[in-house]
Sequence to fold (383 residues):
Amino acid sequence: MTEFWLISAPGEKTCQQTWDKLLTATTRTNNLSTNNKFNIPDLKVGTLDVLVGLSDELAKLDAFVESVVKKVAQYMADVLEDSRDKVQENLLANGVDLVTYVTRFQWDMAKYPIKQSLKNISEIVSKQVSQIDNDLKARASAYNNLKGNLQNLERKNAGSLLTRSLADIVKKDDFVLDSEYLITMLVVVPKTNYSDWQRTYETLSEMVVPRSTNLLFEDQESGLFTVTLFRKAIDDFRLKARENKFTVRDFQYNEEEMKADKEEMTRLSTDKKKQFGPLVRWLKVNFSEAFIAWIHIKALRVFVESVLRYGLPVNFQAMLLQPNKKNMKKLREVLNDLYKHLDSSAAAIIDQSAMDIPGLNLSQQEYYPYVYYKIDCNLLDFK
Fold:
């Protein structure tokens, strides 16, 4: 399970007692969850008005930062061409896997100085993550253009003989070049019609050079043949060929153009390789930064919400629960029993949602008598 429930409850006589009580209820007898203390430092409380406003702002910021974290993770998967194992090992926070980072969370005093007000800290995060989001858009756009152009060229060099580039198939020797009267044309012939072609090509129109056909290349369906004829017979030959299910390719042998195509492909391929390493490094670093920022936002939300709900002086224990997948419903019930005395209106909401009153979609609100936020470390949406 990569899902965590970040909750807080008021300190009993001491915060340790709150912690012990949770452990007894959720792990000692029934193995409902794996629990860790979640350490939040002594942050500056500020005024009640500021806290109320900040509560809404942090909710929006949380959603925004989470979306950026997911975007960076998903783009990492796209760049690494979806080799799942490689993606996970590149998605680290502070050099450790995400579950380890979350369960051993320590506030980063250097990045987010706790002498600053809560509003300032949230603005630092907002600015930092917006920058990552903008940089990602620019880098992704440049790399995607390169990748798209390369794929288009690769597509031109693959596919059926009717449409694919012929630059890597034909050679100068295959053509009569620089003749005032003669021209060599390329014809795609289905494999089932080879014998028809050999039997009829000389008589499809007047002025076809006898024995001038050669098979240059085959794919699964058809073959590419040359044929040499007089220039004035081109239109007639093309028409008769089509009537016999042979397709004349529009192609003029031009060494310069073909060389340019090959060079362009080499250039794009080299550019893509050159950009790949630095891009993956950037994604790794900035994924880590964004993820760390996201968990700090969760910590801020728990702090603000706990002060608003449980009052001053600051006295609450933040706890990180990793639910046992089979027992999630049971864990929710145990937590509600443990903390329902904190907020009778929340208990009423829970009772109502249990009854599922039509038109009253209260179960969607995820409001509990204790402070609760979900953290899901599974950030990849593999198609």
Notes: The radius of gyration is 34 Å.
